[in-house]
Amino acid sequence: MFNDLGSKLLRGLFLAISKNPNGIVKDFVSLCDTLVNFENAEADLQELALKLVVNFKVVAGQYWDNYFVNFPKELQDKMKLKFGV
Predict the structure, then answer these.
(1) Does the pLDDT of residue 2 top 60, yes or no?
(2) I need a surface site. Which of 20, 46, 50, 71 has the fewest CB within 10 A?
(3) How many domains does the chain have?
(4) CA distance from start to end of the chain
(5) How far apart are CA 19 and CA 85, in angstroms?
(6) 3-class SS letters over 44-74
(7) Rounded to the nearest 5 degrees, what angle is found at the Cα of 34, between the Cα atoms of 46 and 70?
(8) In whole angstroms, what separates CA 57 from the centre of its chain?
(9) Is 23 in contact with 16 (CB distance < 8 Å)?
(10) What does residue 16 show for φ and ψ, rounded to 5 degrees?
(11) Within 10 Å of residue 65's Cβ, how many Cβ atoms?
């Protein structure tokens, strides 16, 4: 199980991103790289990560494909598998 400090940090990060989604745009690739390798967290944190990625895709709308194609290929594959994007 993910440790308590890590859990609190991620919850705070997810809350901050939900309040200001534009704040993560330039670092979203790095965040995604972290999230796809995130395996030992509580189920609700995994669900929050999924919602964050899916919501980001929805907000990006028609620009998502052009944005996502710039992700490293390995990360694209992991995100498709883990988050269905």
Answers:
(1) no
(2) 20
(3) 1
(4) 26
(5) 22
(6) HHHHHHHHHHHHHHHHHHHHHHHHHCCCCHH
(7) 115
(8) 10
(9) yes
(10) -60, -45
(11) 10
Cα separation, 74 vs 63, whole angstroms:
20
Q: Which domain holds residue 77?
A: 4-83
Q: Let me know how long the chain is.
A: 85
Q: Are 25 and 60 in contact (CB under 8 A)?
A: no
Full-prediction pTM beyond 0.90? no
Q: Which residue has the tokens 């189920």?
A: 43
Residue pLDDT, tens place only, 41-72: 788 888 999 999 999 999 899 999 999 999 99
Give the containing element (helix H, strand E) for 10.
helix 4-19
